[in-house]
Amino acid sequence: MKTKKEEWTAREEEMLDTFYANKPDMVNSPPHYNQAGIECIDAIRAATGDGYEYYLQGNIIKYLWRYRYKSGKQDLEKAKWYLDKLIEETTDE
User: Fold this and answer.
1) Which residues, including other chains, have CB under 8 Å from residue 10's CB and lie 6 or more apart?
2) Is residue 93 scored above 60 in pLDDT?
3) β-bridge mates for residue 39, sequence order
4) Which residues sit opposite 34 in a β-bridge?
């Protein structure tokens, strides 16, 4: 039979597991960038046409510029996310 402390610890672990399983991915798919099933990045790509690569480049610079002063590692991950998108756009066919 579990003690109250052991029961509480098990409940805490379960709550943490639920929290992390449902925690939004703020780098790859932040919920505030998806409205009505449309990802903001897709709308920007459609709207900017040839300028899309410059948009990606600008965001890479922005996140690298501010990472030490704002969101640290998360900004570096965002810069990488935009760099990966830029690489996809410029890959030789």
Assistant:
1) 2
2) no
3) 34
4) 39
Domain ranges across the chain? 28-90
Range list of β-strands (E), 1-93: 34-35, 38-39
Question: Distance (Å, rounded) from C-alpha 8 to C-alpha 5?
Answer: 5
Long-range pairs, 58-63, Cβ under 8 A, ≥24:
60/86
Nearest CA-CA partner of 65 in 48, 82, 53: 82
Spatial contact of 53 and 17, defined as CB atoms under 8 Å apart: no
Cα–Cα distance for residue pair 65/60, rounded to 1 Å: 8
Q: Please state the pTM of the whole predicted model.
A: 0.70
pLDDT tens, residue by residue, 9-66:
777 777 777 767 778 888 888 888 888 889 999 999 999 999 999 999 999 999 999 9
The full length of the chain comes to 93
User: Phi and psi dihedrals of 68, rounded to 5?
Assistant: -75, -20
